[in-house]
Amino acid sequence: MHRHSDLPKAFADLGIEVRFLKALRKMEFSKPSEIQVRMIPPALDGHDILGQARTGTGKTAAFGLPILQKLDPARRLQAICLAPTRELAVQVSGELKRLAEFANLHVVTVYGGQKIATQLHQLGRKPHFVVGTPGRLMDFMRRGALDISNVRFAVLDEVDRMLDIGFRDDIREILSRITGAHQTILVSATISDEIRRLSKKYMSEPVEIDVSRDKITVDEVDQTYVTVESCDKSRLLRMVLEQERPPVCIVFCNTKAMARKLAGRLHDAGLNVKEIHGDLMQRKRERVMDLFRRHKINVLVATDLAARGIDVSKISHIINYDIPADPEIYVHRIGRTARMGERGTAITFVTRDEGKELTNVEMLINREIPARDMSGFKPSPPREQVKEPPPPAPPSRYETPVVETAAGAPIKAQPKTLGSRFRTSRRRRRL
Ligand code: ADP
Ligand code: MG
Asked: Which of 284, 320, 382, 403 is the most buried (most CB within 10 A)?
């Protein structure tokens, strides 16, 4: 028998009741993360909340615990949570179910790609909390199988994506169906100004919590970049994998086509690799994620959308095979490693046209990313000999941005061109 003194006291201090403390003990959550400390008390007090914290810091329990605790087991559906992808919906509801294990509360997940009949049946079993993707949720609402008009809690997980142009109308329609008074909680790793403005339409006097800024990339992630020609990337990747021998690694590509091609090549080279992107059938995606989660695959080649928010513990390496155009995506990606105190490695491939992207990332994380020493790597010989030296790089056309430091004092960020980052003159000549 466990005694009450074994229960995680720091969660009790936030106002969490014993029936949830028991679940937390079983889940081995000994103390709350920063976002949980900041979010649980105002959520229990009934405030609308806009919460920002980096990926992997426990946002699910931050909104899940207070909402579950406020649900009445004797009443019907009282809470909905919308998530942008099936995988995320499944992951969130899995966590909520574990949190609710001793609370006599029923959580149901609805998402596309699975039989309507199965989910209809589950909805018929009077859930207290429904987690789902917007499309499938609307589908059930239109069929009259799901009535959310009286829910008292609405959550948008990964709100930056949920209020992105593609989902915006669905979200508006879904939330407008809630007619009674309700508490709204929106969370994300990144929240742009536009999304912040939009999200306020759905909240009243929200408490804004942002624990992402000062630690936007953690010290535990060892970040480096390598300059490389596009045509040399897959060879470089094989060498990096050979050197690092990562136990659990995600290689990010910017497009589905690239992910597919690269996974094929690595597979042919005999690596234990699988791909995950939007072109794969739902079943297949689930199978791949399951293998990866159980660490049966060393290398997962992924696109951002397919891997978004996916929670796999102990990811040792993130490799940005393509640097993302949007620096916030970089943060999302590398946030998947070094979770909950582990260490992680992030290596980014940068072609000579992508100096600006790299600089943008450095400005966002407010830190310089050092070049990785790949002196053993021989770039492929130039296809044609360029006699003339290239013309000098045009002057930067964008203004030197000002970055806020943690202390609030603005510093000038010097945009770098990758020209200056190419070490060997040999490479510069052939470019
Ligand atoms: P986020 O939504 O912020 O990306 P998640 O809610 O998915 O993060 O949590 C990431 C992982 O950390 C999950 O495996 C979750 O079970 C675990 N976790 C969350 N809170 C804690 C905690 N207080 N202590 C230990 N592990 C936690
Ligand atoms: Mg999450």
From this structure: 320
